[in-house]
Write a structure and sequence with these properties.
The structure holds 2 protein chains of 2 kinds.
Chain A lengths: L1 H13 L4 E3 L4 H6 L2 H13 L1 E2 L1 H8 L3 H13 L3 E6 L2 E6 L7 E3 L1
Antiparallel strand pairs in A: 1-5, 2-4, 3-4
Helix pairs in contact in A: 3-4, 3-5, 4-5
Chain B lengths: L3 E5 L7 H14 L3 E6 L7 H4 L9 H5 L5 H4 L1 E2 L1 H4 L4 E5 L5 H8 L3 H12 L1 H8 L4 E5 L6 H9 L2 E6 L3 H15 L5 E9 L7 H12 L6 E6 L2 H6 L5 H4 L4 H15 L1
Parallel strand pairs in B: 1-5, 1-6, 2-4, 2-5, 6-7, 7-8
Antiparallel strand pairs in B: 3-4
Classes of the chains: A alpha+beta, B alpha/beta.
Chain lengths: 102, 258
């Protein structure tokens, strides 16, 4: 009996933990620091935008928004795509950039 | 000016649906184009009140990406509005749909937020709707927070119950303020004694406002007629001179100024 219990414990340890994508949903928005939340919500509304377009909405400097948007990319919530000289940001809807374990 | 109004509360049974529906009808009766969406997927109600048995498409389908919003909206102008336009999107009341909506994952909720946010463009700009009213689920859950993020104004309805008042305080601090949402407070089902003098009213308003600077939009007494109707009468049309509707007219005016 004890052997079975030990085996069960062992098997539960090696069982792969299901991965849940960490996405930019409202719960994530709530957990973000205030300055990043504002940027993230604005991008959710715009769907796809440059730092300049986000800055127009938030009324903060373009360089500031650019830094916040890049932080959100590093955190895995946004995707960045270069088109010509412009960089466009959009929400990573597939949660490809980042996952967290249960 | 607020165009998208989310009617929310901490607890259930505060009168969100009754307020949302009558408010939407009042705006339509003023000649406005109004769209009312039932976003309470755990306990859909609008279809029962308006005696709608079936719909080709539900709000659930729109959020699932099955159809566009135009297919969901039922034109109720002829039956429930004296002037203007009244479009209503119902939530699917079947047990299966409720179960399905409660099992959605975070990725789905994120996409649902995107679809709610895009309504601003589709309904206000393309379809020239004047007001969108969201009737939400109570408390802190995905569907209601998605609605709050998508709205211009949150109308928070509280009863007199202390747990409701304390919960509303928490939502003001930890939800509406974090999203920098324009918020107005409404206290519903208030005992008439508590509204008998200016002093009493101020005391009650202070209790709900709890040092916040949020506007106390109005306080609605508990009317036996409204309770007796049990949600079967659309007061804005059937009893437009009722004091309940007079207060809602006042709320509609205040919202236009907020």
């Amino acid at each position: 009996m004890e052997v079975i219990i030990e085996l069960q414990k062992h098997s539960s340890k090696v069982k792969p933990t299901p991965e849940i994508p960490d996405v930019l949903d409202v719960m994530t928005l709530l957990s973000l620091p205030d300055h990043l939340r504002k940027t993230a919500i604005t991008l959710c509304k715009l769907e796809q935008a440059t730092a300049e377009e986000v800055a127009e909405q938030t009324r903060r400097a373009r360089a500031v928004e650019s830094s916040y948007l890049n932080q959100l990319v590093l955190m895995g919530y946004l995707k960045k795509e270069r088109r010509g000289r412009k960089a466009y940001f959009c929400v990573d809807k597939e949660g490809e950039n980042k996952t967290w374990q249960k | 000016m607020a165009k998208i109004i989310a009617v929310h509360s901490y607890k259930g049974g505060t009168g969100k649906t009754l307020l949302s529906l009558n408010l939407a009808v009042l705006y339509a009766n003023r000649g406005k184009s109004v769209c009312l969406l039932d976003l309470d997927f755990r306990a859909p109600s609008l279809q029962s009140i308006l005696k709608v048995k079936n719909a080709d498409y539900w709000v659930n389908d729109y959020l699932n990406g099955v159809c566009d919003i135009k297919k969901v909206l039922a034109d109720q102008s002829k039956t429930h509005a004296k002037r203007g336009k009244l479009l209503i999107g119902f939530a699917n009341p079947s047990t299966e749909a409720i179960r399905e909506m409660s099992a959605k994952d975070r990725k789905w909720e994120m996409k649902a937020l995107g679809r709610l946010l895009s309504l601003k463009n589709t309904l206000l700009n393309d379809m020239h709707i004047d007001y969108i009213v969201f009737d939400t689920s109570p408390g802190l859950q995905y569907s209601s927070i998605n609605a709050i993020v998508s709205a211009d104004l949150v109308l928070v309805v509280s009863g007199m119950d202390i747990s409701d008042i304390k919960g509303t305080h928490r939502m003001i601090d930890e939800l509406y303020e974090l999203f920098e949402k324009k918020t107005g407070l409404v206290m519903n089902k208030v005992f008439a004694d508590f509204l008998s003098s200016k002093g009493h009213r101020q005391e009650l308003a202070k209790k709900l406002m709890n040092n916040s600077n949020l506007p106390m939009v109005d306080m609605i007494p508990c009317y036996c007629d409204v309770l007796r109707a049990g949600g079967t009468a659309l007061f804005a049309n059937e009893n437009p001179d009722h004091p309940f509707i007079k207060i809602l007219e006042r709320i509609a005016d205040t919202i236009e100024k907020l």
